[in-house]
Amino acid sequence: MFWRFFIFFILVTVIELYFLQAIKTFVQDFSEGKKKIVLWLAYGLAFYNIAIAVTSLFHPVPEWDPKFRYVAAAGLILVVCKLFGISFLLIDDVIRLFKWLYQLVFVKAQATEHINENGISRIKFLSQLAVTFTVIPAVSFLYGMIKGAYKFRVHKAEVSSLDLPEAFHGFKIVQISDIHLGSFLDNSPVIKAFDIVMQQKADLILFTGDLVNNVAEETNGFLEQLKSLNAPHGVFSVLGNHDYGDYVSWPTEEAKKANLDAIKKVHSDSGWKLMMNEHVAIDKNGEKIALLGIENWGANMHFPKYGKMKEAYSGAEQYPFKILMSHDPSHWDKQVRTEYPDIDLTLSGHTHGMQFGIEIPGFKWSPVQYLYKQWAGLYKQENQHLYVNRGLGFLGYPGRVGIWPEITVIELKKG
Q1: What is the per-residue pLDDT for 109?
Q2: pLDDT in tens, 292-336
Q3: What does the domain layout of the chain look like in residue ranges?
Q4: Which of 94, 135, 139, 182 is deepest in the core (most CB within 10 A)?
Q5: SS3 of 21, please?
Q6: How far is Cα 182 from Cα 188, in angstroms, rounded to an integer?
Q7: If DSSP codes are grouped into helix, strand and coil, which group holds residue 234?
């Protein structure tokens, strides 16, 4: 782990030094006063970002204070944007290096002359490109932190099935996922989001995992908001990969188990029924459907497989329509569709849509699609449906750009 962060520190340092050279070239025609302001700002940001990298060497990121995470994230976003910006300079330097080597070997007399003749104007132009393509994405990502993380959107979908009992025609389910309470600085965003949830007047509310980032203490101060969710047929939940505390170095296994037990207690204290590899019957006017909920089961990227479908499914065969809550959408292709073809609807989250992408009518893209085949919205294969919620909260980058936080409303239809 130390070496990983040490490499990160070296990378950040190199990026900052390289970008400073671009800034010096960029401001060479500025007045002395403006030049000093820009350079002092550039040096200050470079020092700050390197300090963050040093901090990550000696203090594990999961243990950072949430407020410091915000400030640190802003700096690290700038580092990423600088890396993108200086790519123009890097590519040009590689080309120039090969040209210089070629000229050194084959046309020695022209090598220095070529660089002196063309170097300055080209470097200035590329430095301007580097600064421009650093600032534009940086502004977008900073907007994502200030506004984008809280642009809660309601996504509506219909799921039709001939197996659905008549009594459930028009039955409304609200799904939320990936709240990640530890990422919020206060409870006001959660209050806003849950108000929108309650405005949907759902028959059933389902939460598909990742209540916290890592530890149960992140739920402190949020219990009243969690308790505010209610629906005629109840509120049900499952665990996500972050709820198990797998990304924290615990002093003992007992401490890790105590943390998980505390998170489970938050679910029950909130009035939510936590589904641990089990199923329940949802009854309406004497007709019933099955709701199954399993622990986290991931097929991608070595996520743990805590879920036990056999236990959850056992006894559910009798119900004509079945809904499964499973946090990780990769579970659908890997096991649900192949082994349980009568699971009509699976609800997942987990991907967050990578909190970055483009969604416009007729077009949807995010880098996460190269990791997850199903990553946002409704999918259908034969008679089975999967809905992947984009997540209510955020993790890592404390913001969202293009992929806004989601509250899902699913209406069941007979037919």
Answers
A1: 46
A2: 999 999 998 788 899 999 999 999 999 999 999 999 999 999 999
A3: 2-146, 153-414
A4: 182
A5: helix
A6: 13
A7: coil
